[in-house]
Amino acid sequence: MSTLTYKCPSCGAPLEFDGYSQEMACDNCGNQFPTETVKQVDAIEKQTASSPDNSEWTVDAKPYSPEEAARTQAFSCSSCGAELITDETTVATNCAFCGSPSIIPMQFGEETRPTRIIPYLISKEKATGMFHDYFKGKKLVPNLFMKGNTIDEIRKLYVPYWLFDAQANADVTYNASQVSTFTSGKYRVTKTRHFLVRRAGTLDFRDLPVDASSKLDNSITESIEPFAMDASIAFSPETLSGSMANRADVDAEESKRRADNRIHKSTESAFRNTVAGYHAVIPRSVKIQVPDGRCSAVLFPVWLITTKKEDKTYTFAINGQTGELTCNIPYSLPKFLKWLFGLTGAFTLGGYLVATLLVSLGVL
Questions:
Q1: Which of 290, 30, 294 shows the shortest CA–CA distance to 164?
Q2: pLDDT by residue (tens digit) across 235-248?
Q3: How far apart are CA 95 and CA 215, in angstroms?
Q4: N or C: which terminus of the chain has fewer CB atoms within 10 Å of its end residue's CB?
């Protein structure tokens, strides 16, 4: 014989029927709920319970034609292992990733042909100027970057991406509460009202990018987004003239997992932002499904700049279309502490705790 158990909408503990009040009571949090309300909540939870995502994705990808393959060449770096693609007229002298001259020709294989490409709008001179301008006004960078910053290598590289189009169907419930305080006689009373909030709907995602290169850190490629696809053109090998393209070594299926993760996080955030007017909101059940989708291969323009300081190499990445810049230049801890505690050097316990917390979180 099976036992039917209802959970408290407020804390999730088991509910029991209270004969005196004729309601469902929770011994854990002390709340009571009408029986009909508990049944409605249980029905909603069963309806929004998580289920497997059996999404089907259509991949718009095909290999280069024999004619295009004849006008395209591939290279492999014997130093870092990067594989690069360029047009037949480009002479490869240095690796676009590590700068090594150890570039050797390799046989052009069954590469995934990009469907679109975004041309460079940021020139080499502009990218160089952005590199030098970055340090202006940066009071927290280490002293060794305050002068004498020279570019060790600047590389023009097309980075492969998968673009995803999808529709997310979501059904989310939240435990929400409103707290009010009032005075009754000599007592100060706090009243908490609990609510079950439900949001359901559909979000469309268009041109969601996921980089298809294992050689570039995802944090770098995501930091220089977005790219505007309305400025893209149809790909042909000639569009690579004077440039290199990193070979796509992350397939669509693997990239789909990252796309799904970004779609789920964006959907959860968008739905959560619609729940307002409460003091506390906690997700109770989340059901997000992406029934189908489409992805295609594209190339995005990136400038990679390296500079060396004290035998260590630092990398700048610049969006070749918009000029968005990111880098791995660290902040100076002594400068930060001086800024945090004031020019007088006053060192308070609160400031120490803040600094300790930031260090533990990896910020400093």
A1: 294
A2: 887 787 777 777 77
A3: 12
A4: N
